[in-house]
Design brief:
Helix content: 25-40%
Strand content: 15-25%
Oligomer: single chain
Shape: globular
Distance between the termini: 12 Å
Structural class: alpha/beta
Strand order of the largest sheet: 2-5-1-6-7
Largest sheet: 5 strands, parallel
């Protein structure tokens, strides 16, 4: 098993990089574990209280569950990955069954934040992008997928996303084995990653 961690700021292009890597691999040989699925269960909170949570803070994640499930996959045991709703700002009852496979990709803004998780990774990647580009992607995504207005996204970016990025996400770049600038638009870097991973899978 080969475990890859892919981190980077919100809107940096992580999901695009992951998608392009996965496209070149047999479906039975790769599983993607989104860190967003491991936000804490906030069922005990009201909707108003949930919306006040800083989801770009390390404390927003259930690290024990994520690390335990990655350890289970490494040990050859299947997991029931949690799912999360951005609309409800909470974990859902449904889970996704994940079987152990050749390549496990852990993708999320703080995938490289915890040493216990980094130590499980064979390769650590940081997807970098210009702050203006990230903001534009976040506005587009949150309006289309998360029911927010442009002003809501901008306010959140200024008050939460930018300070949290500088404090918690940007510093994890130093742990990366590989930094991909320009996010998902950097096709040459993605081609190199695809070739590298495919080579690792060969007997």
């Amino acid at each position: 098993m080969y475990i890859i961690g892919i981190a980077g700021g919100t809107g940096s292009g992580k999901t695009t990089v992951v998608r392009k890597i996965v496209e070149t691999l047999p479906k039975t040989q790769v599983a993607v574990i989104p860190q967003d699925s491991y936000y804490n269960d906030n069922s005990h909170l009201t909707m108003a209280e949930r919306r006040r949570i800083n989801y770009d803070h390390p404390n927003a994640f259930d690290w024990n569950l994520l690390i335990n499930q990655i350890n289970d996959l490494r040990a050859g045991r299947a997991i029931e990955q949690p799912t999360y709703s951005y609309i409800e700002s909470n974990r859902l009852k449904e889970t996704i069954h994940i079987e152990p496979c050749e390549v496990i990709i852990i993708e999320g803004i703080m995938a490289l934040c915890r040493k216990e998780l980094r130590d499980l990774m064979d390769l650590k990647i940081f997807v970098d992008a210009d702050p203006d580009d990230r903001l534009i992607r976040v506005i587009s995504r949150d309006m289309e997928e998360r029911g927010r207005t442009a002003q809501m996204v901008i306010d959140r970016y200024v008050d939460v996303l930018k300070p949290s990025h500088l404090e918690f996400i940007e510093p994890t770049k130093r742990y990366a084995d590989l930094i991909i600038p320009m996010g998902g638009a950097n096709q040459k870097a993605i081609d190199i990653m695809q070739t590298f991973i495919t080579h690792r899978l060969k007997p």
